[in-house]
């Protein structure tokens, strides 16, 4: 189932040097430059601090404007690029290592002939997980794997499920499946996704089945509502078992039952509105329940009458 801050540098505050006139010999320029400076000009300028002390500012290179800043910026960019490439390589390595461990986990349980985990492998996996194959947590595993058929996992399905759960060992899988089961609430979209998956999972794709046999649907309803059972569930299952004419559950009926259970959340069928677009089997169920209730009332009334005669 980084940014790099721009580097800031101070511009040089050195005084401009004297320039020679156009008609002077260029060989005399150095002497003219020295003659134009006093002894104080040969020392770096000082800046007064608020506490009266002096501090020499950081100067840029003589003859450059903000080249130092550009060099620092380029250095930061190269460093950031190097770190990003390193992170990508580490992530790729971690991903490959994870996939390798999951592949080995699949190989532990796969069939000796086919590249599939079949019934025997699933039973061994469930035994190592200390879970029953008919347990709700195993259904969650199938859901996370998006398995297309009961009692088998393809390699791709198993790898996708382990990636979705972020597990690469039996111990991690056991803990994560328990966490997911505890966090599921049947009013959430996540549970509804699991509920819809369960119908597809129960179909026999080998024969192109499109409708769940009633006995399979009953087992899956008991399984999917293992954590929290709707008030109406047991009465609904009793109704299905008593009706010989109902042999299958279509996808629409399966999906709508979740809405039906929510609409009569307290088990009170007086809230049922037969004018809404419910599948007809729900109308039959409500009528059956009302007949049962009336029959119970009649039997109680008859019992009281016989009691008075006696």
Per DSSP, the total helix count is 11
DSSP strand tally: 6
Q: What is the rounded Rg?
A: 40 Å
Query: How would you write the strand order of the largest sheet?
Result: 1-2
Query: What's the pLDDT, averaged over the residues?
Result: 77
Topology order in helix (H) and strand (E) letters: HEEHEHHEHHHEHHEHH
Assign an overall shape: elongated
Q: Tell me the distance between the termini.
A: 66 Å
Oligomer: single chain
Percent of residues in helices: 55-70%
Major pleated sheet: 2 strands, antiparallel
Strand content: under 5%
Residue windows where pLDDT falls under 50 for at least 5 positions: 1-64, 304-310
Please state the structural category: mainly alpha
Pick out its properties.
310 residues; disordered N terminus; 11 helices; mainly alpha
Summarize the structure.
This protein has 310 residues and is mostly helical. The chain has helices at 29-35, 67-109, 119-129, 136-145, 155-165, 170-183, 189-202, 214-224, 233-242, 251-263, 280-309, and strands at residues 47-48, 54-55, 116-117, 153-154, 212-213, 248-249. The chain has 11 helices and 6 strands.
């Amino acid at each position: 189932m980084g940014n790099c801050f721009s580097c800031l540098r101070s511009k040089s505050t050195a005084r401009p040097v004297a320039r020679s006139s156009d008609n002077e010999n260029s060989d005399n320029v150095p002497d003219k430059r020295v003659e134009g400076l006093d002894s104080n000009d040969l020392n770096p300028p000082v800046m007064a601090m608020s506490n009266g002390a002096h501090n020499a500012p950081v100067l840029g290179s003589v003859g450059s404007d903000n080249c130092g800043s550009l060099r620092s910026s380029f250095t930061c960019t190269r460093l950031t690029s190097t770190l990003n490439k390193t992170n990508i390589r580490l992530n790729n390595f971690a991903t490959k290592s994870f996939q390798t461990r999951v592949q080995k986990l699949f190989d532990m349980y796969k069939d000796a002939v086919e590249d599939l985990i079949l019934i025997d492998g699933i039973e061994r996996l469930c035994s190592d997980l200390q879970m029953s194959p008919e347990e709700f947590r195993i259904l969650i595993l199938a859901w996370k794997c998006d398995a297309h058929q009961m009692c088998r996992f393809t390699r791709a399905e198993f790898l996708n499920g382990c990636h979705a759960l972020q597990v690469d060992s039996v111990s991690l899988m056991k803990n994560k499946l328990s966490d997911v089961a505890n966090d599921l609430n049947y009013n959430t979209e996540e549970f509804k996704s699991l509920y819809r998956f369960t119908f597809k999972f129960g179909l026999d794709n080998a024969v192109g089945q499109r409708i769940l046999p009633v006995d399979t649907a009953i087992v899956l309803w008991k399984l999917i509502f293992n954590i929290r059972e709707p008030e109406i569930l047991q009465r609904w299952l009793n109704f299905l078992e008593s009706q010989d004419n109902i042999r299958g559950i279509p996808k629409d009926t399966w999906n709508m039952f979740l809405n039906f259970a929510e609409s009569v959340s307290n088990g009170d069928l007086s809230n049922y509105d037969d004018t809404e677009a419910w599948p007809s089997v729900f109308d039959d169920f409500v009528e059956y329940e009302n007949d049962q209730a009336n029959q119970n009332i009649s039997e109680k009334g008859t019992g009281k009458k016989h009691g008075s005669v006696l």
